[in-house]
Amino acid sequence: MGPKKRVSIRINGVNYLHEVEPRLLLIHYLRDVVGLTGSHIGCETSVCGACTVMLDGAAVKSCTVLAVQADGAEVLTIEGLAQGEDLHPLQEGFWECHGLQCGYCTPGMILSAYQLLLRRPDPTEEEIRRAVDGNLCRCTGYQHIVDAVQYAARKMKK
Amino acid sequence: MPVSKLVGARIKRREDPRLIRGLGHYVDDINLPNTLHVAILRSPHAHARIKAIRVEEALKCDGVVAVITGSDIQEQIGPVPVASQNPTLRVPKHPVLTVDKVRFVGEGVAAVVAEDRYTARDALDLIQADYEPLPVVSDPEKALEPGSPVIHPEWPDNVAFRWALKQGNLAKAFKEAYKVVKQRLVHQRLAPIALEPRGVLARYLPGEKELTLWSSTQIPHILKTQLSLMLRLPENRLRVIAPEVGGGFGSKLNVYAEEALLGYLAIRLGRPVKWIEGRRENIQATIHGRGQIGEVEVAVRKDGTILGLQYKVVADIGVYHQLLTPGIPPLTGLMLSGCYRIPAIGIEVVGVFTNRMATDAYRGAGRPEATYVMERMMDRLAQELGIDPVKIRQKNFPKPKEFPFKTATGLVYDSGNYQAALRKALKLVGYEKWRSEQKRLREERRYLGIGLSTYVEICGMGPSAAMPAGGWESGTVRMEPTGKVTVLTGASPHGQGQETSFAQIVADELGVDLDDITVIHGDTAVVPSGIGTFGSRATAVGGTAVFQSAEKVKEKAREIAAHLLEADPEDLVFSDGKFSVKGVPKKGITIQQIALEAHVAKNLPKKMEPGLSATSVFEPSNFTFPFGTHICVVEVDPKSGGIEIKKYVAVDDCGKVINPLLVDGQVQGGIAQGLGQALYEEVVYDENGQILSGSLMDYAVPKAGDLPRFELARTETPTPVNPLGVKGVGEAGTIGSTPAVVNAVVDALTPFGATHIDMPLKAEKIWRLCQGKKAARAGGGR
Ligand code: FES
Ligand code: FES
């Protein structure tokens, strides 16, 4: 175990300063150190996407990023997507369209879709399916997830 | 039920706002101060003698608090339980951590407890375990061969149990048959892959002598009882909480070694302990599903009438039984009649020990196997006899007026109209159009296939007589003094949405706002009793219990209203949450006012107990039997072996529907899993018992891009088994879809002489089949 390293990360608009082990994964930093447990762990091997967060504007699987790599960066997690009782159009879409059952994949799924809508505000069904191909959902069969993203895209265009 | 406003409505879920904000609490999201973390050393061998385990190095590691091996706890923790009434069952002792031998890859050998998760995992590497490898029995058929290596020395034949059933005159059926069609069918092992792996947090309060265990489980109450037996703790000092549960699909319908281990460690160490399963562990040491190899023979008349069916199955059990392991293959046997009239049926099951993880209930649990057998065979028969697959099914359906319909296997199907669902699906898909399209495309050497599956399944588990641990469910409805309603259900959900659907039932019955109702589940200290959510039973059994309690509350409220309004209870009408005297709508009292009166208890009818709540335990008289038709259209590319799903139609009949939105979700998710079995998924063990599909990189869970859009429709045939008329829908999609997909692919490849292909239908298999046949076609010409 090497000496601890200082990281300064801005998460959901708040600055955090911590001393961490160099090997600490970003997902564990977010969950265990900062206490933001909305991002989940489903595989720890970059496959399931449950841990997806935005890192400096790009969706990343935070189980495959070290906390030290995020030093100086800006992170957005599901908790930061909307304030208080407000909902982001994607969150609203998932609710309206029954885009979740157990909800375990949902935060990661929403953030992957968030990146998609940043890049393509009006995606086709195929583009949506491709965009969340790195996010596994075992419950829904994805159809309502596609509907949810379409709902959000419509809403955000208005 | 009275005229309803909410029951039957597409209502969005009330559990969602916390989940879409990331504010739900799954086990690993619960943090108690001073918690220790547990990591488990698992066997790398499928079969080996443990010569020595040395833990000193691990113990020296900074931050390690304890290292436990099997011999440390063999006296303290009882074996992992199995529930079964099968008299032939052989039950090997299933220790929480193994002592002398390891018998499958992933079996727990030792546990490290440390201050944090990284240290716990580091210390695993410092434990030195010496193994002496033993011969491995991986293949269940080979396990039955004489001279095969033996897993449990007390049973040298590796047989775990036998189960058989014979009804009707099979000899006659097979003698009179125009044709007997035989087929070998493999139902590969699957991993349930709930997206949240298992996890346990345990805390012991020595003063109160109370152990609280948070577990990602489908059955908190059953787990509480079993843990009290395993840990020898009084059950009334034990509390199990299933917090948010990230999917189960049967994999959390169990009692696992780790749950008892964590309970034990919390008591022994006096600090909270947490264990979160990794995905590799999950594929190694959480139950698998399916794992049957069947030989089926069907005797049929020239016109397609089925005379008899014989099924012999080798069921791959694994090393130990988990909770329901031996109960799964018999469920296949009981459902083998499918939605057909089959006068004679014979089934022989042999459960076989193998050096693998246990099989148990995975979504469908025995019924997908039955449906697959019958639906594959219907297509095989149609092919052999040159009859359309639709016609042969219709020929053998019982008619709607024949319900309740008794099968040769002894079940009584509650209600059904198989023709109607089939007709609707044919119309929706455009069956005739696809058949002519198929013909046309074949001229262009393009291969379209149309696959049908007309299924019936068994749901709503109860009754208790047929269940190892009770088939009832409890439901409490309590009106609080302020008029809010608290509902308690023993049917602990894990994504099904009972907080919404059960609230709909109660809101209609009591005429209160949905937002004034809270549904609580999953905590044994709050919910008085329960069985759990599995077997598509939650609404049919648990929903009914809640409904009956709401009825009781309403009846009591009526008596109070009559007392306060000085009227006869019979003369009161109830609407919109208000009792009023017939003909005098102005004079009335709301159920909220009554709730307050019931609690302050100053003016109640004589001898009436204060309060306004009721608890019911509903015990169904029979199972329910949902059914439907799924149709899949595929195009297969013989050059690449690729399969494209062009259309997928599902018409399901789950009786009355409480919330169509949730039913759609259940069906879609179910189809995705059934389709996963047909096309992608398989837990592959090699001959040494090593898992070759040990991570999500090799175990192919369907992704968004792999799946088509599903077109859903319904017919509605209520069940007489419960007053709600609901049958259950959690597993229908999984049960119905698998054979529809396989039938479609085989249908597409008929020009290549295909009659059957075992799952999963990987491109390689398809490609090989087409390669092999090419020469013959070139010779024969077309
Ligand atoms: S936990 Fe990061 S991808 Fe699965
Ligand atoms: S909602 Fe359960 S995994 Fe997606």
Give the helix/strand layout.
The complex is a heterodimer of chains A (158) and B (782).
Chain A: E1 5-11, E2 14-20, H1 26-34, E3 52-55, E4 58-61, E5 74-76, H2 89-96, H3 106-119, H4 125-131, H5 143-157
Parallel strand pairs in A: 1-5
Antiparallel strand pairs in A: 1-2, 3-4, 3-5
Helix pairs in contact in A: 2-5
Chain B: H1 16-20, E1 36-42, E2 48-54, H2 56-60, E3 64-69, H3 70-73, E4 101-102, E5 108-114, H4 117-124, E6 128-133, H5 140-143, E7 159-167, H6 170-176, E8 179-190, E9 199-205, E10 210-215, H7 220-231, E11 238-241, H8 257-269, E12 273-276, H9 279-285, E13 289-300, E14 306-318, H10 328-334, E15 344-353, H11 367-385, H12 389-396, E16 405-406, E17 412-413, H13 418-429, H14 431-443, E18 447-456, E19 473-479, E20 485-489, H15 498-510, E21 517-521, H16 538-565, E22 572-575, E23 578-581, E24 584-590, H17 591-600, E25 613-618, E26 627-637, E27 642-653, H18 660-679, E28 711-714, H19 732-748, H20 763-780
Helix pairs in contact in B: 10-11, 11-12, 11-19, 15-16, 16-17, 18-19
The structure holds FE2/S2 (inorganic) cluster (2 copies).
How would you briefly describe this protein structure?
The complex is a heterodimer of chains A (158) and B (782). Chain A has helices at residues 26-34, 89-96, 106-119, 125-131, 143-157, and strands spanning 5-11, 14-20, 52-55, 58-61, 74-76.
Protein architecture, described:
The complex is a heterodimer of chains A (158) and B (782). Chain A has helices at residues 26-34, 89-96, 106-119, 125-131, 143-157, and strands at residues 5-11, 14-20, 52-55, 58-61, 74-76. With 158 residues, chain A is α+β, with helices and mostly antiparallel strands. Chain A has a five-stranded mixed beta sheet with strand order 2-1-5-3-4, with helices on both faces. Chain A has two domains: 5-80, Roll (Ubiquitin-like (UB roll)), CATH 3.10.20.30; 89-157, [2Fe-2S]-binding domain (DNA polymerase, domain 1), CATH 1.10.150.120. Chain B is α+β, with helices and mostly antiparallel strands and 782 residues long. Chain B folds into three domains: 16-21 and 472-618, Aldehyde oxidase/xanthine dehydrogenase, molybdopterin binding domain (Aldehyde Oxidoreductase, domain 4), CATH 3.30.365; 32-134 and 197-247 and 252-285, Aldehyde oxidase/xanthine dehydrogenase, a/b hammerhead (Aldehyde Oxidoreductase, domain 3), CATH 3.90.1170.50; 289-461 and 622-770, 2-Layer Sandwich (Aldehyde Oxidoreductase, domain 4), CATH 3.30.365. Chain B is 29% helix and 24% strand. In chain B, the strands form seven sheets. Chain B has a seven-stranded mixed beta sheet with strand order 3-5-1-12-9-10-11, with helices on both faces. In chain B, strands 7-15-14-13-8 form a five-stranded mixed beta sheet. Chain B has a four-stranded mixed beta sheet with strand order 18-26-27-28, sandwiched between helices. The longest helix of chain B has 28 residues, at 538-565. The interface between A and B is large, with 60 and 56 residues. The structure holds FE2/S2 (inorganic) cluster (2 copies). One FE2/S2 (inorganic) cluster sits between chains A (100-106, 137-140) and B (195, 247, 495). The site of one FE2/S2 (inorganic) cluster has 12 residues of chain A, from loops.
